[in-house]
Amino acid sequence: METILITGSSGFIGFHLSQRLLNDGYSVIGIDNMNDYYDVSLKQARLEILKQHHNFQFFLLDLVDRISIMNLFKENKITTVVNLAAQAGVRYSLENPHAYVDSNLIGFVNILEACRHHNIQHLVYASSSSVYGANKKIPFSTQDNVDNPVSLYAATKKANELMAHTYSHLYNIPTTGLRFFTVYGTYGRPDMAYFIFTKNILEGKKIKVFNYGDMQRDFTYIDDIIEGVVRVMKQIPTPQTDNPNSKAPYRLYNIGNNKPVKLIDFITTIEKSLGVTAEKEFLPIQPGDVPITYADVDDLYKSVGFKPSTPIEKGIDEFVKWYREFYQN
């Protein structure tokens, strides 16, 4: 049985990916540091579901712990690594920059080193649409220049892509970076806008609408993200023949819904699903935020025959149903 290591397995995407792979018959090793960036009880609830699978092992580990990470690789026959562990959040990176350096830079190089020394077949890792910064050209393409990040979070994700390319080039490690676009869905992150909106609307609290609701986001439902990740995992990169600047076994893909939605329209969709109208406070755009994200997914579709397509109405209905059941609200 093939063994997949998933870092950040108690996180939003890590949980859903672990569950999918376990159901597909893989053996999954999950690691997570269970930090308190958001409600640890939600992470624990995800973990308890995963522990019900006989082919799941969990290790409480931090990526910064280089020796423990190396020992984990040494003691387990891991074939593929999906690195989803990271300090997330654009706005939080303004408050606690060192958390991003520790997890997203030091932690990532520890994973790269472990892959280098243990003959890993494929490293798939999370990047982010935030690397595009305030790029004006849309939709965003992986061929675009991304040298102008507007948050430290974005800078660390761009750095991950550069680090991965270096290891692919030097050590022939097949790596694939995935630029996720505004992922939402069941068991989601409580720091995300749609989660905060839902919570506050149900509690009768005012919601903050930044950029006066005029931002656009390529909201991507979690099931689409997972389908894309699973397909990419199975396609191990080979040395490039179409890139004159690199012959490394290295790929980058966008995973987004390819259909940006205005923030105010997204809020309206949540209101309809809840059957409640929100009281809104309209505010200017926040530092580090960008006015639009919009994924060009042509490369992803050409490579793996899939692109996200779940409409926000369906995705939000699924989230709201889960939220009411989970929080008994």
TrEMBL record:
Keywords: Isomerase, NAD. It is an enzyme of class 5 (isomerase). It holds the Pfam family Epimerase. InterPro entries: Epimerase_deHydtase, NAD(P)-bd_dom_sf. One of its GO terms (molecular function) is UDP-glucuronate 4-epimerase activity. This is UDP-glucuronate 4-epimerase. Residues 4-238 form the NAD-dependent epimerase/dehydratase domain. The keyword Nucleotide-binding does not apply.
